[in-house]
DNA sequence: GTAGAGAATTGGTCTAACCATTCGGGAGAC
DNA sequence: GTCTCCCGAATGGTTAGACCAATTCTCTAC
């Protein structure tokens, strides 16, 4: 009963529908005809080219947008974002909500990633990546009375460490997991108790990386994340019951 | 005639359009009214409920599907997948193609994740997770003349190790990164030279975890991935120029 | 030369229909 | 009574044409 359908196989294969749009864009990317910052052809043009209707094109583009591959701006066009490689936090947020990831589990995954990143950063010793980290540490010490600002520097410090590891894949993963934590932390950071101690821990991490001491960098990062996990648990218990990992869209 | 913009604005806010669909589903999940395995309401019903047209609903559902949150089957309905938490490889594949991740970078990220996972698996020593690993090792020794089958066991062994770490977040990350590697490896594994040595390395990793020796587990996993990276480089150089990281859809 | 208004471009949405697949229930055969 | 087969309802997939909204470009007026 498995009679084949139309054999009009074009260059994109026989796939029909929204899936075809994704394949087409993937092909353009592989061929180097689409790079970060570029604009895709208008929807109407794509529709004509792929011989499908515009809503079908739009379905495919929505899927690409959800994967973070494209961004659409009404009136302007659909673009491939430039900037560093970035995995959206959406998928992980949904998984967290669906499967009830605990705070400890998320922190544990984060520790694996960030301890590794801290070690790599220390080993590699890319000197031009030191200043961004140092600046964020300074920012923390300067904002100990403004928890939200402090948290911002905190986020950026960890991102800077991941960047100093010099591996874009690792950086994207760190950002994806971190964003889960920070989305949640933003609501409770006002209750934080020991911002000064936190700032000093970050400083020690920085110093270990600066001194190109991977062992110490790993240790300090590991200890820091353990303490941060407990601190967050404490903040949340003060705040009462929170909705489980929100499905934040960032 | 609804003069007013629908004032039914529930807790979903006043967001209009496809975004609203995503928020709505996210809300249902947070409230526990949608769990893995469940079926979503039919599109026509959602459209009526959210006061938007069906194409808009469909756009949102396509976005959710791209994030791996839902799966649609024509004639049956739209479902939330059951099974373990899973991050699709699509987003990472696109990032790889767009930013030209090198093989070494991907392996490096993989090493951070899997060395951590191996260590955790050994520390935790969940005895009921040992058998799956052992079975895959056996499968490798049994399929040294069939590279594709060998590769399958290889994939599943690494997944089993990540599962033995007992952290679903880490498991999802490992699978996402691994799938990038394996998608690529599938094309060159026929040229593999030392499947026996590879099988024995996997066996040593298993033994270290079984013996609850985290240090050795980490070491063995690290060494294995380094060798695997070089092996794959060798296979690819034999195969000539390959298209850069394909945007595989899995 | 510059600033503003208008036109063209482009993504966002709607309505209304038809197609393709799946699944369940009822009719018929045994 | 049980089983099998088929048909129709339910549901996702696609199409078509139209209109709205935001952006961008261009051309005019000063």
Number of helices of chain A: 10
How far apart, in Å, are the first and last alpha carbons of chain A?
Answer: 46 Å
**Reading side by side through the largest sheet of chain A, how are the strands ordered?**
1-2
**Mean pLDDT across residues of chain A:** 88
Radius of gyration of chain A: 22 Å
Low-confidence stretches of chain A at least 5 residues in length (pLDDT < 50)?
A: 1-13
What does this structure look like?
Two copies of one chain form a homodimer. The first copy, chain A, has ten helices and two strands; from the N terminus they run H-H-H-E-E-H-H-H-H-H-H-H. The first copy, chain A, is an all-alpha fold and 250 residues long. A two-stranded antiparallel ribbon of chain A has the order 1-2. The longest helix of chain A has 25 residues, at 214-238. The N and C termini of chain A lie far apart (46 Å). Chains A and B meet through helix 1, helix 3, helix 4, helix 5 and helix 8 of A and helix 1, helix 3, helix 4, helix 5 and helix 8 of B. Chain A binds a DNA duplex (30 and 30 nucleotides) through helix 3.
Descriptors:
homodimer, 250 residues, mainly alpha, two-stranded antiparallel sheet, 2 strands, 62% helix, disordered N terminus, DNA-binding
Set down the secondary structure blueprint.
The structure is a homodimer of 250-residue chains.
Chain A: H1 18-30, H2 43-50, H3 54-66, E1 71-73, E2 77-79, H4 90-99, H5 103-124, H6 130-142, H7 147-164, H8 168-185, H9 195-210, H10 214-238
Antiparallel strand pairs in A: 1-2
The structure holds a DNA duplex (30 and 30 nucleotides).
């Amino acid at each position: 009963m498995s009679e084949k359908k139309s054999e009009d196989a074009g260059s994109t294969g026989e796939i029909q529908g929204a899936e075809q749009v994704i394949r087409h864009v993937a092909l353009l990317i592989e061929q180097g005809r689409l790079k970060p910052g570029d604009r895709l052809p208008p929807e109407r043009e794509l529709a004509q080219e792929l011989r499908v209707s515009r809503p079908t094109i739009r379905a495919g583009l929505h899927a690409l947008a959800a994967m973070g591959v494209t961004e659409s701006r009404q009136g302007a066009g659909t673009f491939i974002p430039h900037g560093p490689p970035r995995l959206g936090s959406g998928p992980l947020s949904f998984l967290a909500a669906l499967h009830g990831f605990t705070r400890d589990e998320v922190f544990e995954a984060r520790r694996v990633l960030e301890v590794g990143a801290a070690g790599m950063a220390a080993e590699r010793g890319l000197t031009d990546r030191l200043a961004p980290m140092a600046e964020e540490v300074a920012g923390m010490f300067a904002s100990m009375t403004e928890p939200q600002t402090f948290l911002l520097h905190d986020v950026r410090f960890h991102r800077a460490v991941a960047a100093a590891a010099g591996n874009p894949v690792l950086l994207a993963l760190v950002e994806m997991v971190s964003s889960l934590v920070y989305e949640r932390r933003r609501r409770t950071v006002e209750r934080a108790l020991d911002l000064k101690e936190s700032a000093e821990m970050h400083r020690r991490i920085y110093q270990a990386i600066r001194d190109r001491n991977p062992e110490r960098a790993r240790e300090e990062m590991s200890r820091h994340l353990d303490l941060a996990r407990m601190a967050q648990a404490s903040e949340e218990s003060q705040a009462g019951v929170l909705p489980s990992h929100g499905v934040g869209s960032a």
